[in-house]
């Protein structure tokens, strides 16, 4: 199957099938947010603004990278950009390898460039591709090309060994990835974000990334979309590899382990409401990301559906900030200390 066809199939499966983790949740509902009977603030005082990769967000939300590289992805990314601008939140695109290998697909990514001066847009490159580019000397040029394509505020490098292992066309070749990440950090004029795709980043991995100069990670923990599950559904021998569906570290555990190790954490992986957003921030996240729920809201109700979904999360977050006596996100980040 071609790269562009595979990207479309991935999106279709996330929308049409139940590809969530089956036996794990993200662990955030289990986090007890301490009730404060004396909040000393009004609900109207709650301030959800935060800084992220050089821009200010109105809300600590990010639509994490989902798609690109096939014709309908242009519509999806353009509509997500519209929603991100209305909400004042960050926006990622899906893996951009296709823009290098199939230049005709570049428009499916550049659709977000129109909002890049007002909200952070985040590029996306697979770790396997990055290592290949590093070895052949093309990495700096490719990263610059992709950043320019979307007016990026940062570039994300995604780690997905489990997905590559399960993908029928996968490339489980991760030797040299850390060296390539360090080289990207040193070469890129933009911040480099290292992210998982839904199986989580452990303390040991975070420590190795910090040693390589990485200052921002998206823990992308277990509990939401299982990309292993997506790939298992695409396999002829799916029945033989079901044990790999639920491999991963829950999001809350990732945040707890990595807190204080790396300067900036993005929390994604099964985020479903404003209470989980509050719990993630209390555990050290600066920004909370979501992909699957946003994509389904878009396909069901268009841009308005995305805005309605995330406004409901905002209201829930504001309520929990009030109930914990946290007028700012900085205050919320310290309630579990």
Structural summary, described in words:
The chain is 44% helix and 12% strand. It has 337 residues and is α/β, with parallel strands linked by helices. The protein is globular and about 60 Å long. It has one domain (3-332): Aldolase class I (TIM Barrel, Alpha-Beta Barrel). The model has no long low-confidence stretch (mean pLDDT 96). It has an eight-stranded parallel beta barrel with strand order 3-4-5-6-7-8-9-10, surrounded by seven helices. The N and C termini lie far apart (50 Å).
Spans of at least 5 consecutive residues whose pLDDT stays below 50 are: none
Fraction of residues in helix: 40-55%
> What is the chain-wise order of helices and strands?
HEEEHEHHEHHEHHEHEHHEHEHH
The major beta sheet can be summarized as: 8 strands, parallel, barrel
**Could you please say which CATH topology applies here?**
TIM Barrel
Domain module count: 1
């Amino acid at each position: 199957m071609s790269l562009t066809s595979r990207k479309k199939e991935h999106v279709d499966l996330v929308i049409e099938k139940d590809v969530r983790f089956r036996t794990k949740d993200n662990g955030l509902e289990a986090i007890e947010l301490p009730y404060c009977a004396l909040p000393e603030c009004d609900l109207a005082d709650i301030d959800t603004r935060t800084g992220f990769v050089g821009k200010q967000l109105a809300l600590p939300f990010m639509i994490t990278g989902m798609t690109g590289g096939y014709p309908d992805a242009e519509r999806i990314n353009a509509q997500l950009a519209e929603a991100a601008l209305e909400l004042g939140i960050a926006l990622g695109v899906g893996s951009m390898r296709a823009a290098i290998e199939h230049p005709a697909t570049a428009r499916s990514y550049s659709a977000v460039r129109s909002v890049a001066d007002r909200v952070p847009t985040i590029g996306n490159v697979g770790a396997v591709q990055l290592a290949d580019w590093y070895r052949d000397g093309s990495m700096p040029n490719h990263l610059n090309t992709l950043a320019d394509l979307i007016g990026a505020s940062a570039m994300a490098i995604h780690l997905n060994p489990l997905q590559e292992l399960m993908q029928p066309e996968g490339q489980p070749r991760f030797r040299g990835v850390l060296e390539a990440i360090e080289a990207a950090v040193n070469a890129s004029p933009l911040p480099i974000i290292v992210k998982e795709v839904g199986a989580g980043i452990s303390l040991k991995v975070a420590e190795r990334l910090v040693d390589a100069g990485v200052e921002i990670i998206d823990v992308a923990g277990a509990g939401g979309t299982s990309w292993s599950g997506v790939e298992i559904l695409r396999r002829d021998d799916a029945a033989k590899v079901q044990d790999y569906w639920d491999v991963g570290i829950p999001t809350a555990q990732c945040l707890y382990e990595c807190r204080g190790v790396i300067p900036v954490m993005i929390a994604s992986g099964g985020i479903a409401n404003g209470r989980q957003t509050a719990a993630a921030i209390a555990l050290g996240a600066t920004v909370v990301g979501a992909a699957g729920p946003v994509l389904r809201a878009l396909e069901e109700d268009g841009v308005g559906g995305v805005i309605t979904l995330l406004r409901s999360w905002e209201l829930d977050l504001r309520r929990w900030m009030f109930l914990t006596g946290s007028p700012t996100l900085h205050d919320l980040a310290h309630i579990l200390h």
